Queue: 3 jobs
Job 1
Amino acid sequence: MDSRQPLDARAITLMVVLCAIWGMQQVVLKATAADIAPIMQIGLRSGVAALLVGLVMWLRGERMNLRDGTVRPGMVVGLLFGFEFLLVAEGLRHTSASHMVVFLYTAPIFAALGLHWKLPAERLGLVQWLGVALAFGGIALAFLGHSAPASAVLSNSLWGDFLGLLGGIAWAATTVVVRSSALSKAPATQTLLYQLIGAFVLLLAGSFATGQSHINLTTGVWASLVFHSVVVSFASFLVWFWLLRTYLASRLGVFSFLTPLFGIVFGAWLLNEPIEIGFLLGALPVLLGIALVSSGGGPSAQKRPVPGAAR
């Protein structure tokens, strides 16, 4: 019998705080991009977070089990995780943080479709199919709703948006691999460690290969590295999985739309990014679709982990 609880005030407060933290990520990356390239910053944060997760595992007496069938899927999710953030880092060079967070957080839509095809227990219900349709309609509107005339700047922005969407697909593929392999039964810390190590190696190599390894260690850069390494990639992950162990995942999924919403608000507030009407009209059905898909509606809604949350 599932002993997890319905949401209470503590869970709701923590979820709102977590969504605000996750929505701030792309904004902080964009704000410090002049002093440290996003690809380098994400690589460094992944390395620091991997060390912190390893420390937690050591303190708990956990060990990496290399004979439990997780090595091969672990390498795959590590590569996918790193590739996702390669796309995010490159996309942030071309589009706004608010655009990036919306397109990246389409991951639950693609994850739900992949799991529907891969696992019989993850079949989508009518409400979820409605969410998928709304999200894809919103994506089309967001791409086609640019009010600016055709120009090099617009083309640049569309390319960044497209890379963000590809990042969401890569994130969804990570979820599908985790759910359909031996990683689904592995400790969450072990799965995360595979991802963080993969991102650290791939992104640092990419930063040097593309000439984006320069770092100007300003106060803002230090603050950003601490925020991303300790708060986002480490602390928020631990809180998120505690919530999944304590409360019903289908209830937590209702909050999924808040992360991109916070990203839009923070981008406009802190970076003075314009919110185009066309993009906003597309983003709203995307957010609603994410909420519908993540909140359940299928036969296994109470057991389904929320795809695409802790990032």
Note: Residues 152-179 form the longest helix (28 residues).
Job 2
Amino acid sequence: MSDVIQEPVTVALAILTREGKFLLQLRDNIPGIPYPGYWGLFGGHLESEETPEAALERELWEEINYVPTKVQKFCYSAASDVIRHVYSAPLTVPIDKLVLQEGWDLDLLYPEDIRQGNSYSSKAGEIRPIGKPHQKILLDFMAKNKC
């Protein structure tokens, strides 16, 4: 029997801000996906031969029909299981102009929501947690630290 070495997953994530708040997605509450029913950043996996910037644009279009006009690299982090390319950009349209195509809910969360680690979802009808890795990224962003 041979040991299979699992390559880390590479993702591109977006910190989208509007009026001092952060746009987050409430992930579907489906067992088997990472962080089911948790708030997290929009974005996703890079496809073969895709740059992080291209993946970010594709994922944002697929998830909310939005592509920022300008993104700025915030940080890069690598762990044994995931490589994260994180970008920031302003959300230049009102939230009601977004079309949620992936996930359970979306909302603009206040910095205090990020600090406390949870926020109410009107679609879920309850307070839901923020995924720890995404909370850390946002806390670092608010503190102007790199992840």
Note: The two ends are 38 Å apart (CA to CA).
Job 3
Amino acid sequence: MTASSTRRTTAAHSRLAVVGAIAVAGALMLTGCGDQTKDTGSGNETSAAPLAGKLPQSIRDKGVIKVGSDIAYAPVEFKDSSGKVVGIDPDLAAAMGKQLGVDFQFENGTFDTLITGLRSKRYDIAMSAMTDTKDRQEGIDSDTGKKVGEGVDFVDYFTAGVSIYTKKGDDQGIKTWSDLCGKKIVVQRGTVSEDLAKAESKKCPAGKKIAIEPFDNDQQAQTRLRAGGAAAGSSDFPVAAYAVKTSGGGKDFQLVGEQVEAAPYGIAVAKNQTQLRDALKAALDALVKNGEYEKIMKKWGVTDGAIKEATINGGK
């Protein structure tokens, strides 16, 4: 596993309040550039897109920011019943697009390949419930400690932890990660849930290691657990809470124990794209200031993870 594949890093345990009801609602993936005829007299900025002038000229010329994302991680990003890309990240991207005068176009990819796609310029940014970590900033493999790439910068926009969930009414005594010794857990490949399971398994007594079954996406892991193929699953807290509320009408799963690993989600940007990075930060700060950010957090029931200001490389 490389640094580009970890969704989180190990930190002190932290508990966040359980999110309220998370509504399944459509959200436009793309935003129009709006009326560009009302020039404010400051370069490319207009009243319709007040921060357009902060973007690199190449992005302004294209009118598009290509977003690499693992679009199977409800409620952060997923496809609704009509196939539309919806969720927290698409809503935020749409609102940022209005500030910057560009479309954010989401392109689906496996989570652990998103940074590679960013480095190869397939994407302009990666926005996919991706945790800002020092290893990822520096291009360090979290398993080996070796340098594997240039690293990326992050614009942090949300805070979330990690949760364990089980079949409803069948927690098998699982309350903490140590309770998983001798049991099987299903996870999404390349996430902190997999990292935590590996780290905890090393602490288990001989003959009682944790059996870890990773999948390409979280939905596959949920299907396996639902069918009785494991004792527990683990995901980022908003995702686990959403699965508990919606799967089987709320009858399939339950959260167990406390949330851990509170850390920031960040939009990943190539190290040499500082102007784009700073434009994204300015757009997020504008959304916080004008109240649009809070509306999006309330819409998805995740206000406990809201930030007060966007930060650059705030992960540890």
Note: The CA atoms of residues 22 and 294 lie 14 Å apart.
